[in-house]
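OP here, attaching both records as promised.
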Amino acid sequence: MKLALIAKIGHRNFDTVMETVLSWAVDHAVTLYIANNLKSSIRKWSDKKSGTIWSSALEFTSSDNESIEKSDLVITVGGDGTILMAAQLVKGLNKPILGIHSGKLGFLANIQEPYIREALDSLLSGSYQIDQRRLLKAEMPDGTSYEALNDFLFTKKDTVSMIRLRASYDGQFINEYWSDGLIVASPTGSTAYNLSSGGPIVYPGTDVMVLTPINPHTLTTRPLVLPYDRPLDIEIEENPAKILFSYDGFTETRTFPSLQFSIQKSENSIELIRLPHQDYFETLRSKLMWGADLRSGQHSSHS
């Protein structure tokens, strides 16, 4: 089996996680493809760990794209941001991603350190399931398009003032928003910034998107859940040079002559690897403390 390894160096338990992954790869004669830009960091870290035997499992490539092209599956070591980065590279390629956690929250990258070997063994035996996650697509009138696994974000740049946006769905006017910003989230992204801004949790695979204003000026303005098979049109009624637009945390730096986006489901999707014992609602309870009774320190019971 050939695996692409996409890593975010610097997380708190990165060394321990990498030691486990590399040792497993050597033990099972598995090739790990790693981009050259990580070579010096990996070798420096490997030398400190006296891990020269690990070189037999590593093959360095010119880029993450080449690593993915040569691989059967993709492993990410980091947090959810590392998975979002990998999603931009694997979209539409049918290369499943296993997210190993070495960051802070790890909602998508949910393989914890004690279970790494078990998870990697499952890859070899094929005892895993695939979660198909559809991306959202934002297209501009000039044909420029962006895709996001989590969300699109519209906010003001370098200022605390509010932003004005006009939203329509399938040709019908929804609302004019005056707020700190606006989030358009997928079900996957519903547990990210959308949730922090008061948006709902949406079960993965549900064919919807969520329109959530950030701190709206009008208290009656609430998040809206819409089917994602028809276009949600967003028009920014501001100077484009003052607007920050981002997709999955990646900021578009160029200035647009105008800001109009048509958002709906993308034709692309990614595949997240889920182990047999993993459960979405258990992840909600353990990662987000969902259902926790803070008075007793206990989670709500399913019995």
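Record two, same layout:
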Amino acid sequence: MKIDPSSPADLSVQIADAIRDAIVSGDLIVDERLPSEPELADQFNVSRPTVREALKRLGAQSLIRTQRGATGGAFVNRLSYTDAYDQQVTTATLLLSMNAVSFETACEARYALERACAPLSAQRSTSDHIATMRTEIFRQGQPGLTDEAFCASDVAFHRALVDGAGNPVLSYQLAGAVEAMQPLMNMITFTARSREAIIALHTTIADAIEAGDGPATVDGLNALETETLKLAKSVFDAKTRKKPEAG
């Protein structure tokens, strides 16, 4: 593992990147103990605080874990899909909130990914996944349900659809699409949407999955995408009409 002291990049970042690359390449294996802070400081010819900052970065990425005591130290972590899933949601949320991503682009990405998952979900969804979807549909129809609660239920419905595919890699890849992009879409469209229309589309999708009908599930998602884009257009058009009045 090497760094370039002449590089303008922060030394702690370089060290973290070097250790991360060693983990990814298999030079450092799961549960292996990293050299101590003094040893890493000597190896990279940097101060211990610089090493400590690098280790904090790796810990934040769940690539290493630290243990205290005589047998403690920093160890290569066994990253779980749960850990990776949470990071994917956080990263996607930040990207969407900090970058100029149009509603249409986010919508296109989200539904393209979910449609890819739909046939597998129709084949593999368990009774628990279907029960979750039915429960969320029932919840969405309750009078007095807040917009925030409706949005959370909407996300839970689609989370069950995705998880029903029975593929943890797909669930990880779709985490950002469902739990980052979808709330963004809800935040924009909630003022214009008809809950009854959304519930009807969710019911169509749940019926198709329960029947094991992949193409019908895709058709249901296509209809939901069309409805989402229509709602967004009505919101954006209304805002455009109000601008001259504000001036």
